[in-house]
Design brief:
With 227 residues, this protein is mostly helical.
């Protein structure tokens, strides 16, 4: 009976982690859309929504600590709960990145965008898609899926590099563009970091399943490195 109750608690925890993930996905897409449209009110909503993300994070962390304290889990269950704690923290930080993009839009004031946004929305779409699948792999404890997803982070990195190079051409053409270029570079950097944190979640998933914690890196794998 106690085991059945514990399993129900774990299922509820996983459902709540998926909910927190969907909140972060929503905030990320909305923050970039607001920047693209220079919609200051929408950015204010993203910033206010971050408080709900933070509140959900603390609620879930408290639930994890109660389960560890009351159930005294061992082996797989302990790996799962400790990893859930880390995943929750990763999601909260991703929420901060969305909030940061909202702050960028507000700080720009009435300045127009240096250029129409194309690759930054692509980064947001790719990053949130990876996040959604990474969380699905985590709750399903699917190590194989978790190993594959981080390889796609190269696409996010390539978009970031492309954005950086393009913005540098605007700066070289006219140094007065530096401030507006920096705003967009900051937004792109936040999305690049989101991709990195998705990889962290995938590494945690593999740890839950296998008991081994290893970095997942496409470049290392391609070189045949066991790191």
């Amino acid at each position: 009976m106690l085991r059945k109750t514990f399993e129900q608690e774990i299922k509820q925890l996983k459902d709540e982690i998926l909910l927190l993930g969907s909140m972060v996905e929503q905030a990320t897409i909305q923050s970039v859309d607001a920047l693209k449209k220079r919609d200051l009110e929408a950015s204010k909503e993203v910033i206010a929504f971050d408080r709900k993300i933070n509140q959900k994070r603390f609620e879930l962390e408290n639930r994890v600590m109660v389960l560890i304290a009351t159930q005294q889990p061992m082996a797989h269950d302990l790996r799962l709960l400790s990893s859930a704690f880390e995943v929750i923290s990763e999601l909260e930080r991703m929420g901060d990145y969305a909030k940061g993009i909202g702050v960028i839009n507000l700080r720009m004031g009435e300045q127009p965008l240096l250029k129409p946004l194309v690759d930054i929305p692509r980064m947001a779409q790719k990053g949130t898609d990876m996040l959604h699948r990474a969380l699905t792999a985590f709750v399903n404890e699917d190590a194989e899926a978790a190993r594959v997803i981080p390889k796609e982070d190269d696409e996010v990195d390539e978009l970031y590099t492309q954005i950086y190079r393009e913005l540098m051409t605007y700066i070289m053409a006219d140094p007065k563009n530096i401030e507006r270029a920096n705003w967009l570079l900051w937004a792109a950097h936040n999305l690049e970091r989101l991709g990195d944190r998705v990889t962290n979640i995938c590494e945690r998933t593999v740890f839950v399943v296998t008991g081994e914690y290893k970095e997942i890196s496409a470049s290392y794998d391609e070189l045949g490195d066991e790191h």
